[in-house]
């Protein structure tokens, strides 16, 4: 068994989780494969009813699960509630797509009949990160179920408890074997799941290094993969922007929600030189309002980092920024100074005066430290934004919408927001995913259905005699 610790009180054990070996993974995949034909054969009405029941089950014991999620992951309670609410919301929204999944496009013409339809892929592996485990799991689970697929889910070993509780409840509302859970780590459990020859699609959300390992494991069986990987999201504050409380508060909230541990949080800010001093000053003022503490305490704005290793990594980036001559400003307030060292707490930091090539600017820091750099021309800003191996999301800030959209078109990212950069800005109707080393494929709404089904063509040719072939 694996002990799950509270990031706010690192010695406290929140619960225990198993570590599934390859044999247990095989049992889970076989159970999903056995359930797949029956689940795929349900009528539209039957599957819609099943997802309605699943959405209701996902809401059970909501407050206790939210507290459990905060205890194991560290984030403040309202964030855990948003995370948990994602499961019933996504099940309900994907339920609306089932009729479209079942529909066939039929063309009858002089050539014959052409039927285009979608088939479920079969068994889908869902490998989940620790930062928003429930929401991000159901980003794949909900469209998979709507598409007629069965699912095997591997929660993160760092935050498996709340997600597993939700999965057990949802599974009980569905036929046996439709949802299966294999707790464990990436090296053993995740690898066995991604490499299993019966799995036909792997949906992975996590770091880029982990995504590479998933691709390697899946390649042996030519298994399809959907990868939502790391990001180093730039925010471009143009000369035409107005630096006011609304703008800097939005930047702060994007950068520091969940202590910066969000894949498409703002990770670096580029601001026109004419606004640089004002923006740094205003952003520092609103960031200094944040209180860091136990996520269950309503006085906390943000909680701890997930682990000691994460804390060490982010602190190393801060030290490196100072050592190369950057101005590092520590902000915010400690909620409980006496208990600070018992958790993986870190106050928010703003960093200026470091070059584009510095480690902090180039990395996905995944923590509460934010570099701010000036630019002189928009072409320079676009080049700086694109100077990254990542391309998940970005944002452009301006009071001139058309101008902002024109700049946005030059940025290499799967999603570019205008005058917003926040969770929920890319809603369920909007395809979401990265370019470059930020991923492969898209999730959300119909895009998720397309990832988790195969197009099948049924063809009858009435003009077969006219098709090319050897002479009689």
TrEMBL record:
Protein's name according to its UniProt entry: Aldehyde dehydrogenase
**What keyword terms does UniProt attach to this protein?**
Oxidoreductase
Query: What's the family?
Result: Belongs to the aldehyde dehydrogenase family.
**Record Gene3D superfamilies:** Aldehyde Dehydrogenase, Chain A, domain 1, Aldehyde Dehydrogenase, Chain A, domain 2
Question: Taxonomic lineage per UniProt?
Answer: Bacteria, Bacillati, Actinomycetota, Actinomycetes, Mycobacteriales
Q: Which GO terms describe its molecular function?
A: oxidoreductase activity, acting on the aldehyde or oxo group of donors, NAD or NADP as acceptor
Return the Pfam families for the record: Aldedh (PF00171)
Q: Which PROSITE patterns match?
A: ALDEHYDE_DEHYDR_GLU
Residue ranges constituting the Aldehyde dehydrogenase domain according to the UniProt record: 3-457
Taxonomic source organism: Mycolicibacterium diernhoferi
């Amino acid at each position: 068994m694996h002990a799950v610790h509270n990031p706010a009180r690192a010695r406290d054990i929140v619960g225990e989780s198993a570590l599934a070996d390859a044999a247990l993974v095989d049992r889970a995949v076989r159970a999903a494969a056995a359930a797949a034909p029956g689940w795929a054969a349900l009528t539209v009405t039957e599957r819609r009813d099943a997802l309605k029941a699943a959405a209701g089950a996902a809401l059970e014991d909501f407050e206790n699960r939210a507290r459990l999620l905060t205890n194991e992951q560290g984030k403040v309670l309202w964030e855990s509630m948003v995370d948990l609410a994602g499961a019933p919301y996504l099940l309900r929204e994907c339920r609306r797509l089932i009729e479209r999944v079942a529909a066939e496009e039929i063309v009858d013409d002089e050539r014959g009949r052409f039927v285009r339809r979608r088939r479920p892929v079969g068994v889908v592996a869902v490998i989940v990160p620790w930062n928003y485990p429930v929401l991000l799991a159901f980003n794949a689970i909900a469209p998979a179920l709507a598409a007629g697929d069965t699912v095997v889910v591997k929660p993160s070993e760092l935050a498996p408890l709340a997600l597993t509780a939700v999965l057990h409840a949802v599974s009980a509302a569905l036929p046996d074997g439709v949802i299966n859970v294999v707790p464990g780590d990436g090296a053993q459990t995740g690898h066995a799941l991604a490499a299993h020859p019966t799995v036909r699609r792997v949906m992975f959300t996590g770091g880029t290094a982990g995504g590479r390992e998933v691709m390697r494991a899946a390649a042996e069986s030519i298994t399809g993969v959907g990868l939502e990987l790391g990001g180093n999201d730039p925010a471009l504050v143009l000369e035409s922007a107005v630096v006011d409380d609304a703008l800097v508060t939005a930047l702060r909230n994007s950068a520091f929600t969940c202590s910066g541990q969000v894949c498409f949080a703002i990770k670096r800010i580029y601001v026109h030189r004419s606004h640089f001093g004002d923006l740094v000053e205003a952003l520092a003022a609103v960031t200094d309002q944040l209180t860091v503490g136990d996520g269950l305490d309503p006085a906390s704005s943000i909680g701890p980092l997930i682990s000691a290793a994460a804390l060490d990594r982010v602190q190393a980036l801060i030290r490196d920024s100072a050592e190369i001559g950057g101005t590092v400003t520590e902000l915010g307030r400690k909620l409980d100074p006496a208990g600070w060292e018992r958790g993986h707490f870190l106050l928010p930091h703003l960093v200026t005066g470091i070059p584009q090539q510095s480690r902090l600017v180039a990395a996905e820091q995944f923590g509460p430290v934010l570099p701010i750099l000036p630019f002189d021309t928009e072409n320079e800003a676009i080049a700086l934004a694109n100077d990254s191996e990542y391309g998940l999301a970005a944002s452009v800030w301006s009071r001139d919408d058309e101008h902002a959209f024109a700049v946005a078109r030059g940025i290499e990212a799967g999603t570019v927001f205008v005058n917003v950069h926040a969770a929920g800005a890319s809603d369920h109707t909007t395809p979401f995913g990265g370019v470059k080393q930020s991923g492969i494929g898209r999730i959300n709404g119909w895009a998720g259905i397309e990832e988790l089904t195969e197009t099948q063509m049924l063809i009858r040719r009435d003009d077969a005699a006219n098709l090319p072939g050897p002479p009689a």
